[in-house]
Amino acid sequence: MGKTLFDKVWDAHVVDTIPDGPQILYIDKHLIHEVTSPQAFNELEARGIPIARPDQIVATADHNTPTVNQHLPVQDPLSRNQLEQLTKNCDKHGITLYGLGHQYNGIVHVMAPELGITQPGMTMVCGDSHTSTHGAFGSIAFGIGTSQVAQVFASQSLLLKKPKSLRVSVNGTLAPGVLPKDVILYIISQIGTNAGTGYFCEYAGNVFEEMSMEGRMTVCNMSIEMGARGGMIAPDQTTFDYIEGKKFAPQGDAFAKAVSYWKTLPTDPDATFDKEYHFDAAAIAPMLTYGTNPGMGIKINEHIPETGDMTFEKALEYMDFKGGSQLLDTTINYVFIGSCTNSRIEDFRVAASYVKGKQKAPNVNAWLVPGSQQVVKQLKEEGLDEVFKNAGFTLREPGCSACLAMNDDKIPAGEYCVSTSNRNFEGRQGQGSRTILASPLVAAATAIEGKIVDITKTILT
Ligand SMILES: CC(C)[C@H](C(=O)O)[C@@H](O)C(=O)O
Ligand code: SF4
User: Fold this and answer.
1) pTM for the full predicted model
2) Ligand 2 atom having least distance to the Cα of 338
3) In this protein, which residues make up the domain named Aconitase/3-isopropylmalate dehydratase large subunit alpha/beta/alpha (predicted)?
4) DSSP conformational letter for 73
């Protein structure tokens, strides 16, 4: 029987199998950040265990870093302490750290792919649920807990039970203005936030084949929001072209050799999956969430369902929305374009395409937070920073920022924020804040109009 992409990568990394039990999987790359690594370093220290392969670990500072004045000492004592600890731990163990202000610094799921650290066929982990992002390259990438971070530090491997296989296929033609973010928000709105529990997902079909790497990363990023351990997309010419020439990618002959191996990875035609979903691309529209989990999504001009279960009622109360109403015309005072879901150059290009030559509405605070220093550099090279500044947007320095509001970038209680991030949980962007997840295009349009508008009308007419 044929093998799936997941099977091929998994099987190539099994070090040992415990009879009737879990397997030991070798991990190629271990990414770490300041929030989930300190306890793991402490555990190793306490037990006197050295780090097995420090050269396979890459560290960045992203979660609670300030997004203004990064050249100055960090004000917040908790953040400062975590960042200092990360620096100390990396120094001590010889781990490469791209700290605050470094030209390679950024959100872990933005900086690693753009440096060529993320490659097809790899196993990658990080103490962070959105590690699924890296699956866009055809790698098995998933988030791990702190005790597993310690396990990987100690052994460069993990004790794991193989997950079940799930395939989500989307075929057909997307309408103009429908972005990768809409595709994944649509999928989650259809199958729910638990559909992927216990599964590792592969995205297949011409819609993903035609997507850029940035778009594929947006999709794989949110795999975790449908409950899956991770998501992946078969590597192809788009993948190879993206990686070629990147700082840590194989170079010259080594690259050609790598590509010939990567070409063997896509799922065999006769491989089967434990569960499959199929969607028609034409059914997808720009999406918005109205509730407090990413599955509570509707098309931009649809109505919120009339009634639902307890979770639904509670969510509507928190969001102050009425069942059966539309979100169009809702006044919005905060727009956040950022996070590891949508803070890459392509996201800013599409937002700028709407913003160019216009002014943001006076009521809106429009925050742009690039995912990395490299993205900042690209923005400037392409003159997009000027487009946004001229329109009245605030361009901040890289980091997770208002995605989870661990730093000062908080949305005030009671305010709506149209956000390109991936989670709309209660209080996620600040206590009492109300998040509406959307694409960078919808977010940009909201900032300009000061309210939610039907972009299918504004951009097409
Ligand atoms: C802080 C970290 C553990 C967390 C995660 O794992 O996802 C964060 O990145 C998030 O998005 O909520
Ligand atoms: S940007 Fe948001 S989702 Fe991504 S790693 Fe940071 S906090 Fe988590």
Assistant:
1) 0.98
2) 1
3) 7-450
4) P
